[in-house]
Amino acid sequence: MPEEQIMAIILKPIVTEKMTRMSEKFNRVAFRVAHEANKIEIKKAVEDMYGVTVIAVNTSNYHGKKKSRYTKAGMINGLTATYKKAIITLKEGDTIDFYSNI
């Protein structure tokens, strides 16, 4: 799979305290992915990009929520981002190090 197609599917990794614990305990990592991407495309993209074996892919769609706050200029209304998240289960022994190229 060409590099630009992989980058169009996998937008960025989700690195939070919860996902760090899941990666240590259950060997799972999470990514923000394109809305149009399906599980098969996500699996191929992760395997090509990181050189690991993917066992399972779970996806979920997060819808934006309405947010408002009161400021000196008045009420500001907005919407948080809508995104699709993929949780990838890796084969035992495979790991993805997000901090190696920092």
What would you say this structure looks like, in words?
The model has no long low-confidence stretch (mean pLDDT 91). The strands form two sheets. The protein has a four-stranded antiparallel β-sheet. Strands 4-5 form a two-stranded antiparallel sheet. The chain has helices at residues 3-9, 17-26, 39-50; strands spanning 10-13, 28-33, 54-62, 66-71, 74-79, 83-90. It is 28% helix and 38% strand. The radius of gyration is 16 Å and the shape is elongated. A hairpin with a 2-residue loop joins strand 4 and strand 5. The protein is of the alpha+beta class. It has one domain (3-90): Alpha-Beta Plaits (2-Layer Sandwich). It has three helices and six strands.
List key phrases describing it.
alpha+beta; Alpha-Beta Plaits; 102 residues; 28% helix; two-stranded antiparallel sheet; elongated
Write the layout of secondary structure elements.
Layout: H1 3-9, E1 10-13, H2 17-26, E2 28-33, H3 39-50, E3 54-62, E4 66-71, E5 74-79, E6 83-90
Antiparallel strand pairs: 1-2, 2-6, 3-6, 4-5
Helix pairs in contact: 1-3
Please outline what is shown here:
The chain has 102 residues and is α+β, with helices and mostly antiparallel strands.
Strand order of the largest sheet: 1-2-6-3
Second CATH tier, the architecture: 2-Layer Sandwich
Helix content, binned percent: 25-40%
Instruction: Report the total helices.
Output: 3
Quickly count the domains: 1
At CATH level 3, the topology is: Alpha-Beta Plaits
Low-confidence stretches: none
Largest sheet: 4 strands, antiparallel
What percent of residues are in strands? 35-45%
Count of individual beta strands: 6
Per the principal axes of the C-alpha atoms, what is the gross shape?
A: elongated
Mean pLDDT across all amino acids: 91
> So what's the CATH class?
Alpha Beta
Could you give the order of the helices and strands?
A: HEHEHEEEE
